[in-house]
Amino acid sequence: TTKMIAYIAAAMLLFMGIGQIIGYFRYEPGSGRYSSGLVLGIFLMIVGLLIYYKAEVVVSIIPTRSEERRV
Questions:
Q1: d(CA 16, CA 65)
Q2: pTM of the prediction?
Q3: 51, 20 Cβ separation under 8 angstroms
Q4: Distance (Å, rounded) from C-alpha 24 to C-alpha 33?
Q5: Are 51 and 13 spatial neighbours (Cβ–Cβ below 8 Å)?
Q6: Could you tell me which of 58, 70, 68, 65 has the C-alpha nearest to residue 5?
Q7: CB of 31 within 8 A of CB of 1?
Q8: What is the C-alpha to C-alpha distance for residues 25 and 37, in angstroms, rounded to an integer?
Q9: Among 11, 21, 18, which Cα is nearest to 48's?
Q10: Dist. CA 54–CA 63, nearest whole Å
Q11: What is the pLDDT of residues 23-68, one digit of tens each?
């Protein structure tokens, strides 16, 4: 179902965010690698949590085939 897809997308964003945060702390500060990784990681985790807890809202935004036929 589309709600399950929203949960999968939320989990992917959470894992990507965790990966960005780990990457940020893994490299030396002066190397320039992953300099925005902390901000990006936090952002991805927030979006993932929003999608997880508000899956119904996300699902309502996504058009389905039955809605396309009615238009």
A1: 30
A2: 0.75
A3: no
A4: 8
A5: yes
A6: 58
A7: no
A8: 9
A9: 11
A10: 17
A11: 888 876 666 655 788 899 999 999 999 999 998 888 888 777 765 5
